[in-house]
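It is worth pausing here to work through a concrete case rather than discussing structure prediction in the abstract. The textbook approach is simple: state the sequence, then state the predicted structure, then interpret. We follow exactly that order.
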Amino acid sequence: MSAAATAAVIYKIVPVALWEEARKNGLFEGAPVDLADGFIHFSTAEQAKETAARHFAGQADLLLVSVDAAELGEKLVFEPSRGGAFFPHLYAPLAFAAVLSEAPLPLGEDGAHIFPENFA
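Step two, the predicted structure:
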């Protein structure tokens, strides 16, 4: 991990139903793609909108979950993607104690997700 590839807050885009189920269980183990890859995919603020467009296009009922990266410790690793950008990956379940906020991520009329007003 390079020093430039860190972020104080990281983001997870997750279906509301999956998040609610995780809340009942007390731990977020990941979405199906996370379970298949062996880590939970996150994005930095700079990456979140592209992540939404690329991997969640047209999907409604999503949440934007912000997470305190420092709370995740050494299980959080910033790794290069196919394009070379460093993405945060968590090699452990996500404890809700690290969650800073949850915000709806609705679809706009143009089909793009509408991020919260205060989003970076």
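Step three, interpretation. The radius of gyration is 14 Å. The beta strands are 9-15, 40-41, 62-68, 76-80, 86-90, 99-104.
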